Amino acid sequence: MRKDFEDDSEPLISVRPNKPSRDCDDCKRQDKNQLDISMHRLNTYKALSNETYLCLTSVDPILEAFLLSQELSNNACDEPELQIEYEEMNIRVRAYAVDLLNECINSEESKLLLNEQYGAQNVGEKIQEHFTRVKIARYLDQKEFIAHPITQRLLRIEWLGEWSTLSRQLRSPVNKFVSHILSYAIFLAILFMHSEFSENSNLHGPPRTGLEYYIIVWVLGLTWLLLKTLVAQGSKKFFSLWWNWYDLINLIAFYSTFLFWGLSYRDLLKNNHSNLERKYWDSFDPTLIAEGNFAIAKVLAFGKLLNTFQINKYLGPLQVSLGRMAYDILVFLVVYFLLLLSFATGLNHFYYYYQGMIKIEKGGLKKYQIPSFTTLVQTYKTLFWALFGMSPIESADVVISNYDSEKNAIIDSVKDEHSYTQTVGYILFAVFHLIAIIIFLNIMIAMMSNSFQKVQDNADVEWKFARTAVWMSYFEDGRTLPPPINLLPSMKSIMKLCSGQMFRKKKGKGDNVFDEEYQKLITLIIDRYTRHKLKS
């Protein structure tokens, strides 16, 4: 074991190296020896990530492997020069946790291991009765551990639930999921019908289809569901999940729509101009703003169906790939914006003088200066849409006015053209197309293809990890009734409120207290793991 490490990592220690920081006194004192510090940290982590060392020194090697994996992942980002070494250690540590799980020989041992609550609060997880260790693994991105057949089999059993009585059937996660999907499908159908019925109405003020009341009630139910999710998950975990942010933004779009519906109704009562034609409306009329916000809310509402696709074996990996590609597009847009900024500044400086110029040619035909580059905002628009081939090539033309509006006469002494200005404009416009379309666009396509291929190469693990997130969101109590029925107080909630249990904190075994059975199981697992390693 010792031959793989440098001398400065011996003897093996249990203290973690501190993270490099400008606020750390030790780092300030040793600032001149950064190379020695980085190598010492690397060799120390080599020792700490050794499987034998973890077995001998850790009271809970699985949780220790999870936490160590997260540290190694962070170190790979903090020290890119040593990224490959830290990633190799990270892969080995993650495989070690999976190997220990693989040593469970029956369902009782597997359940005991996956339900262990030790260390939950240290990683921001609330103490739960079922699959606490799986929730920790999901929070720390341990995909291989979650995708293991033992974990997936027990999760599937929990997902299907018990069917001995009607109440147990209704509380089973799969029935909760089906009821929520049906409820949401009805909500989407109402949104669709609202769009169809609104096409025949061009009145000023809020829509009058009669479906608005159902939409408001449904949104209230979705809000209550999101609030209960916030309480169940805790603020730290809740705001770390992108789909929660998606739901929050969607609800904000709906509530802003309702707000401007109210403002437009108040304006209607005040001025009584419901039959006023749209062409006379103000640019920021409450009705127009409500329509825009409602359009955004509808798009987001239908887009939420992507989260449901994670259940499906074929659509699940595709949904994961779309998420990775969205990140690639954001990275591309940041770089593209810098390119846009540089060319927009130059082109606008070249063309701003020619804004609004009109040239009267022979025969009285008027030629106007195209406003593509005459203002900075218009220049941004022209260059952005040029990426999609929607900007005219005549955008770089220069028109010199030969018409005097005061004298209402044509000025013959004006030059016909500024050929140098127009040539430079065309060259810059062509260079932008060359860089943006031929180079940048193909780079983005390559990035997206790479992300898609990474997911496809590990499709089974990626899909099971994403599916587990959906499954476990229905494991907790409190999501039995879908929106908007969840707005009605259930008998269970009334009994809890009367007995005071609703405001009483749920007690667990304790964050730093081991179950004796779990301690015995860990000892057996390590013994089996050691014997298998010696045989191999």
- Helix-strand string: HHHHHHHHHHHHHHHHHEEHEEHHHH
Number of domains: 3
Kindly provide the radius of gyration, computed on alpha-carbon positions and rounded to a whole number of angstroms.
32 Å
> What is the tally of helical segments?
22
What coarse outline follows from CA principal-axis ratios?
Answer: flat
Mean pLDDT: 83
Secondary structure tally: strands: 4
Helix coverage percent of residues?
55-70%
Q: Strand order, biggest sheet?
A: 1-2
Question: How would you briefly describe this protein structure?
Answer:
The protein is about 65% helix and about 0% strand. The chain has helices at about 25-30, 35-50, 50-55, 60-80, 85-100, 105-115, 130-140, 145, 150-160, 165-170, 175-200, 210-235, 235-240, 240-270, 285-305, 305-310, 315-350, 375-385, 420-455, 460-470, 490-500, 515-535; strands spanning about 360, 365-370, 405, 410.
Main traits of this protein?
disordered N terminus, 4 strands, 536 residues, 63% helix, 3 domains, mainly alpha, two-stranded antiparallel ribbon, two-stranded antiparallel sheet, 2% strand
Describe this structure in words.
The chain is mainly alpha-helical and 536 residues long. The protein folds into three domains: 219 residues, no CATH class; 103 residues, no CATH class; 133 residues, no CATH class. It is 63% helix and 2% strand. The chain has a two-stranded antiparallel sheet. Strands 3-4 form a two-stranded antiparallel ribbon. It is flat and about 100 Å long. The N terminus is likely disordered.
